[in-house]
Amino acid sequence: MSDGPGAARIRAVVVDDAVLLREGLARVLDEAGIDVVGQHADA
């Protein structure tokens, strides 16, 4: 990803019933430089 001036960060919301999957995916995305702005269980 580009970190230069004016570069926009990607934001994501993670939705899944499986808590471990949801939290794990959020961590992987965060480590990749993607802002996880929310998590929610599938309704």
Automatic annotation (TrEMBL):
Lineage, broadest ranks: unclassified sequences, metagenomes, ecological metagenomes
Domain Response regulatory: 11-43
Entries under InterPro entries matching the protein: Sig_transdc_resp-reg_receiver
Stated name of the protein: Response regulatory domain-containing protein
GO biological process: phosphorelay signal transduction system
